[in-house]
């Protein structure tokens, strides 16, 4: 049913469809990768850090996140999974009638093309292998919503495409190598961001089970999921010991601010347990991810 409070295909409709609150999940891995690269670039005699490449990496990540949101909005609506009456999460553009399906198809094509155009110059900085990386990002952007999320592989993809790939490749584009510290940081980043998917699927577990969407939460149950949510935050912070071992002590210590907030969100998650109120935990988790990214990055740059 169309929501008449938002004019169809208006600017407001497209802003809602883009889901600005999710952009922190795309920005944080790039931010961490850039902070690591900027810090390590000081070890080189020449000024090897490229601000142009940095801007392109960030822009590519943000556009791809918006593209993923459009794809998710359209295909979930097309499958009939976004029933406005039973949906527990934030409202979606196609389901509410804010954006027409034809317009959303065009937007998906446009954002995909724009992301590719933005990423194309990165070949100059990172080599021809950037073509493969970009193609995989686009491919799995589609496969996640259409197939892989139904197989319970969403968490693996988050670890890869919100952790290992963006952090490591952002660093590689600047310095043409990937260190052990960078790889461990990328894993920690992926774990932190996976908390967003976990709380989202925890909220939707009953609907996902009904729709045959076999998420990790559906597989392991709600009690184990609650402890998993807490554990990944703890593990991510402890993995930060690699920063201390590489003379980046503040980058290890400062993210414990994130961990405290993560703990409070976990307690709220256990208390609310189910229903639309869990969207509060979703918002807090997005905030926590941003704080993690900022504390790690500031810690790297200060020392």
How would you sum up this structure, described in words?
The structure is a single chain. It is built from 16 helices and no strands. It is globular and about 60 Å long. With 303 residues, it is an all-alpha fold. 76% of the residues lie in helices and 0% in strands. Helix 8 (154-175) packs antiparallel against helix 9 (180-203).
Task: Name its key features.
single chain, mainly alpha, 303 residues
Structural shape: globular
Average pLDDT rating = 92
Number of beta-strand segments: 0
Low-confidence stretches: none
End-to-end separation in angstroms reads 54 Å
CA radius of gyration is 19 Å
Strand content: under 5%
Indicate the structural class.
Answer: mainly alpha
Please provide the ordered H/E string of secondary-structure elements: HHHHHHHHHHHHHHHH
SS summary, helix count = 16
Tell me roughly what share of residues is in helical segments.
Answer: over 70%
Q: Quick one: biggest sheet?
A: none
Question: Brief description of this entry?
Answer:
By secondary structure, this protein is mainly alpha-helical.
